Amino acid sequence: MEEILKTIIESLVDNKEQVQITRTDDEKGTLLKVKADEDMGKVIGKQGKNAKAIRTVMKAITAKEHKKVGIIFEE
Predict the structure, then answer these.
(1) Residue 41: which H helix or E strand, with range?
(2) Best exposed site among 6, 9, 22, 51 by fewest CB in 10 Å?
(3) What is the pTM of this model?
């Protein structure tokens, strides 16, 4: 799951080394925190369109596994 998210995020940013993804699991599901320092604007996109699309894709992927995933974009 993290590898798919990392691939998506790295395709959007200029500096791939700055991409950090932290995973936290609990009884409710999985929480993924994304940090991309200078390129966070590219990840979020205008009016949050990229962020919304990333969340939609990740929810579709995890729905097959009957898991819940949340994604937080940190600056």
Answers:
(1) helix 40-44
(2) 22
(3) 0.88
